[in-house]
Amino acid sequence: MYYLCDTPRASGTRDTAELLLDGVGKKYRRKTVLAGVSHRFQPGLTLLTGPSGAGKSTLLRLIATAERPSSGRMSWDGEPLPQARSKLRRALGYAPQAVDLPEDLTAREFALHIAALKGLELASADRQFAAITDRIGLHPDINNRISTFSGGMRRRLIFAQAMLGEPRLLALDEPTAELDRETAAKLGALIVERAASAIVVMTTHIADELAPLAAGTLRVEGGAVVAVSP
Amino acid sequence: MTAVAIARSSLRTSLARYSRSWGLWLLLLVAPVGARFWIPGENDTTVVIAVNGSAPVMSSAMLGVALGIVTSTLLLPVAFIYLRSNATRRQAWQIEEVTAASRVAMALGRYSADVAVLGAVLSAMTVAGWFIAWLVTPLDTINLGHVTLGLWLIAAPALMGVAALRMLFDSLRPTRGPFGEVMFFVLWLAAIAIPAAGAERNVSFAGNMLDFAGFVRPLSYSLPEGQKGDFAIGAAPVQHGRVELDVMSGLRSEGYVASRVAWAGIAILIAALGGLLYSAHRPRPERRRTGLIARLLAPGAPAAADPGAPGARPSRAPLIGLLVAELRLIGNGRLWRLTAALVAAGGAFLDYRTIIGPAALLLLVFGLTAHAARTEQPGLRALTRTAVLPALARRIAFVAAGLFWSLAMALPAIGRGAAAATAEPLLLASATGMAAALAAMLLGAWTRSAFAPRLVLLIAWYAYLASA
Question: At residue A114, does pLDDT exceed 80?
Answer without folding.
Answer: yes
